[in-house]
């Protein structure tokens, strides 16, 4: 598991390229909560939008997740704990005024970038008024 990337995954990098190509500027790997520590993959600090790019296996994608047969108990507990942590993160950030966007690794990056750009622009417009 040490070799599994946590930062700069291919899905995350492609999404960032799509956002940049659309003129949407962002920060990466931003700590958005301190205790417990949570780090957004992509963040828009002004409009308070936190983007998390979730891998299908690690976060229990409803379309693509599989339950390993080897060491099944360990993996089931790990994936369920990841899912619970994601829900907790969403709840805490929303309570703090953040808009949380979760993007599955299998989601087309162009579509995700458009969705994120719309959310960011809407929040920026709301802050201007």
TrEMBL record:
| Keywords assigned | DNA damage, DNA repair, Endonuclease, Hydrolase, Nuclease
By its UniProt entry, which Pfam families does this protein fall under?
Vsr
- Gene Ontology BP term (one): mismatch repair
Q: Does the keyword DNA-binding apply?
A: no
- Report the superkingdom from the record: Bacteria
From the Swiss-Prot or TrEMBL record, what is one GO molecular function term?
endonuclease activity
Task: List residues traversing the bilayer.
Answer: none
| Protein family membership | Belongs to the Vsr family.
| Name of the protein in its database record | Very short patch repair endonuclease
């Amino acid at each position: 598991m040490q070799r599994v990337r946590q930062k700069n995954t291919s899905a995350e990098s492609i999404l960032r390229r799509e956002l940049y190509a659309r003129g949407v500027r962002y920060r990466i790997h931003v700590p958005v909560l301190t205790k417990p520590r949570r780090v957004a993959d992509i963040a828009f600090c002004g409009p308070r939008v936190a983007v998390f790019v979730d891998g299908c296996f690690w976060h229990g994608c409803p379309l693509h997740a599989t339950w390993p047969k080897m060491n099944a108990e360990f993996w089931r507990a790990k994936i369920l704990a990841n899912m619970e942590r994601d829900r907790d993160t969403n709840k805490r950030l929303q309570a703090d005024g953040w808009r949380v966007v979760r993007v599955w690794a299998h989601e087309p990056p162009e579509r995700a970038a458009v969705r994120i750009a719309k959310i960011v622009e809407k929040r920026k417009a709301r802050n201007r008024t």
